[in-house]
Amino acid sequence: MPESGLLITFEGPEGSGKTTQIRRLQGWLEGRGHTVHVTREPGGTPIGDAIRAVLLDPHYREMSPEAEALLFSAARAQHVDQVIRPGLAEGITVLCDRYADSTMAYQGYGRGLDLASLRAITAFAIRGAVPDLTVYLDVLAAAGLERKQQGDQAEWNRMEREALSFHERVRLGFLQMAAQEPHRWLVVDASQPPDQVQEAIRSGVMQRLEVGDEAGDGRRQQ
After folding, report:
1. Range of the domain at 61
2. pLDDT tens column, 103-128
3. Residue 204's beta-bridge partner residues?
4. Under a CB-based contact definition with an 8 Å cutoff, are residues 6 and 132 in contact?
């Protein structure tokens, strides 16, 4: 069965508000008659959730960048096989909180791993399941972490506890990728009030829906 659904991924620095905006977009899309499935990475499947627990556990400080990248990719491969591809085949709009671009940003730009190697590993994991649209919620790294500090810092995961310089490299990596593929990325200023952020997201998604699935299907076959 040919894939006909829409894959929309959300990326952003820590504290960018992805989860809130995804849920609001879900309600809006469902109100317009779309069948929507919200998922996340790492996770989305029982295997992915088990890997997530290891990846984000602050006790595993000795984890190497290479092991980290491979674990994220392993969870992603299972996610694509078990959730994303089946959903797209059924015509579902899949909203994913983080996806392959996070590996490039965090393990590539953030950790300094070879980008070409990460692209090869990612291509193996996703097998052509490229997003139709990637919504990037941009916020200064320091501002995003400050938002996190308003909660219980004891609950911060292993990635969130990295130094500010790491998070700044991650943000710059996202911005570079967005500049390289402007047709796929929608960059939204996440420092705006939440209603304005959502309005910008809906506008970008509507444009993608009007274009239709043809471009997305073509990219998935690359």
Report:
1. 6-220
2. 999 999 999 999 999 999 999 999 99
3. none
4. yes
